[in-house]
Design a protein that fits this description.
Alpha-Beta Plaits; 2 domains; Aminopeptidase
């Protein structure tokens, strides 16, 4: 029996248990950096799998080791996140969230469950591979500063240092049974913009006695679009969006200030820095020229995510070997952000997509929605594939 046959057979045997774990985590979601019960459940699963070489990190995070023969030869890391989102689930399923207002709407329950499944497979194959597999169960992917940045600071990529790290994430645009990959730059950096435009309030009927911050803020929102449309290189994807505007005036009241919150995203770190400078100068210039002032905070978020080309080529080859070439699809760049990107700036990294869509079952909703769900057959694919890709990397 080949190693692929062994892994596929074991993934099939474990499928029901992995699904049960996913449903347990899904029913008991916890927000970023609050994953106490989730962490406890994952530790219990590792213990039951005979994996006792683990330690806590970043509060609720866990890092564990599975050592094969000659463990110091080579190390590969596998990462899963575990936090949920502040969304009220509207799915009517037996495993619906029991934590009102909190939901696993981004598949982190799937990621953690698949990694446990992969761990159980790999632990049973310790005598058949050389090197070490590092398992990273990470908190706080959905919230700045991102659990990955904290785990890195606490040494997750040391003792032993992995030569590569692989992450898996659900993708409802891809059918279950298939996976997606992209080499090079894949996902955007993300920065949060917090802007307060200050003027002088007054009666709406006598605007000449006021300094209208609503008008100033309107000009700022329009003018900042030139950062993307006229200042950015047209071949460099960039996004600047404001999603929150609060004036707190009335039909006849001009307020003293207006609050705006938005996001800036791009795929190039040098342009990212320049854009910050341009955003600030445009905003301050408009507010000053109109008789007001402003306070702008640009909160740096996750960097752009880079899939190292040589590693990604090996991952793609492993995917095709395990699933067949017809089930491995190329991906376009995506302007969403992921804190896995922090790992990609420290070591060779590959972040790929696990298909979870099933139109016949009506499983088509996007992530971050109240109706998001997955075709659970994908968990068999996800657990087995992660285990196989780890062994392929240990081959060097």
């Amino acid at each position: 029996m080949t190693i692929i046959d062994k892994i596929k057979s074991r993934a099939k045997e474990l499928h029901r248990e992995v699904v049960d774990l996913r449903r347990h985590i899904h029913m008991n979601p916890e927000l970023s950096f609050q994953e106490e019960k989730t962490s406890a459940k994952l530790k219990e699963e590792l213990k039951n799998a005979g994996i006792d070489n683990w330690k806590e990190m970043a509060g609720t995070g866990i890092v564990a080791l599975i050592e094969g023969r000659n463990p110091g030869k080579r190390t590969v890391a596998l990462r899963a996140d575990m936090d949920a989102l502040p969304i009220t689930e509207t799915n009517e399923v037996p495993y619906k969230s029991t934590n009102e207002g909190v939901m696993h709407a981004c598949g982190h329950d799937v990621h953690s469950s698949c990694l446990v499944g992969a761990a159980r497979i790999l632990n049973g194959l310790r005598d058949e591979f050389e090197g070490t597999v590092k398992l990273i169960f990470q908190p706080g992917e959905e919230k700045l500063p991102g659990g990955a940045s904290i785990m890195i600071k606490e040494g997750v990529l040391k003792d032993p240092a992995p030569q590569s790290i692989i992450g898996q994430h659900v993708m409802p645009l891809i059918e279950a049974g298939k996976v997606g990959y992209r080499s090079g730059i894949y996902m955007a950096s993300t920065d949060e913009l917090y802007l307060t435009v200050k003027g002088k309030g007054g009666h709406g009927a006598i605007p000449h006695l006021a300094t209208d911050p609503v008008l100033m803020a309107s000009h700022v929102v329009v003018a900042l679009q030139q950062v993307v449309s006229r200042i950015a290189n047209p071949i460099m994807p960039s996004v600047l969006s404001f999603g929150k505007v609060i004036a707190n005036g009335a039909t006849n009241v001009i307020p003293d200030s207006v609050r705006l919150e938005g996001t800036f995203r791009t795929l190039d770190e040098s342009w990212r820095e320049e854009a910050h400078t341009r955003i600030r100068s445009i905003t301050e210039g408009i507010c000053t020229s109109m008789g007001g002032s402003c306070e702008l905070e640009i909160k740096r978020g996750y960097p752009a995510l880079i899939n190292e080309p040589a590693l990604t080529a090996r991952v793609k080859a492993g995917m095709e070997e395990y699933l067949g070439a017809g089930n491995v699809v190329p991906l376009d760049i995506w302007m969403a952000a992921e804190d896995f990107s922090f790992y990609s700036h420290e070591t060779d990294a590959c972040f790929y997509r696990l298909g979870t869509r099933n139109e016949k079952k009506g499983i088509t909703s996007s992530v971050h929605t109240s109706t998001f769900d997955v075709d659970e057959t994908a968990l068999e694919t996800g657990a087995g594939l992660m285990a196989f890709l780890a062994l392929k990397q240990l081959e060097g």
